[in-house]
Amino acid sequence: MQLRGPVVAVDEPRTVQTSNGQSDLAEVTVRPDDGRADPVTVTLWGKWTETADVLAPGMELLVIDAQEKEFKGEIQYSTGRDSMVVVEPDFLVDVTDIRSWVQCPRMYYLNKLAGLPLAYPVVKGTIVHEVFGDLLRGRDLDESVDERVAEAGLELGLLDRDAASVAEEVRQNASAIEGWLNQGTLTEEDQWRSEQTLVSETYGLKGRADAVRRGSPVELKTGKNTNREPRFQDKVQAACYALMLGEGEAHATEQATHASAAPDTGTLLYTKNAAVERTEETGDLSPAKDFSIGPGFLKYVVRTRNEIAAMEADMSVPTGYEADAKCEYCFEQDTCMAVSGRLEQESKAGQVGRAIPDEEQDYFKRFYRAIETERRAVHREYAKLWRQNADERAEDDRALIGLEPLDERELDGGRWELRAAGTGAVSKIREGDVVLASDGHPIRGKAELARVKQLGEEIVVTTDEPLDLRRLDVYPSEIGVDRMLTALHDALLKQPAEQKDVLFDRRDPEFRADDTTYIDNNEAQNEAVSLAVRAEDFALVHGPPGTGKTYTLARTVRALVEQGERVLLTAFTNRAVDNALEALREQGFDDFLRVGTETGVHQDMQEFRLKERGDPSAISTELREASVVAATTASCGSTVMREQEFDVAIVDEAGQITEPGALAAINLAERFVLVGDHQQLPPVVQAEDEMDGDDTADLGSSLFERLIEAHPEASVMLDRQYRMAQRIQAFASREFYDGQLRPATGEVAAQRLTDLPGVSLDALPAHLQDSVAFVDPDGRARGNTNPDEADAVVETIESFRAAGVEADEIGVIAPYRAQVAEINKRAPDGVTVDTVDRFQGSSKEVIVVSFVATGSLDGPIFEDYRRINVALTRAKKSLVLVGDADALSTDSVYGRMVEWAR
Ligand SMILES: Nc1ncnc2c1ncn2[C@@H]1O[C@H](COP(=O)(O)OP(=O)(O)OP(=O)(O)O)[C@@H](O)[C@H]1O
Question: Which has the least CB within 10 A, 241, 631, 686, 888?
Answer without folding.
Answer: 686
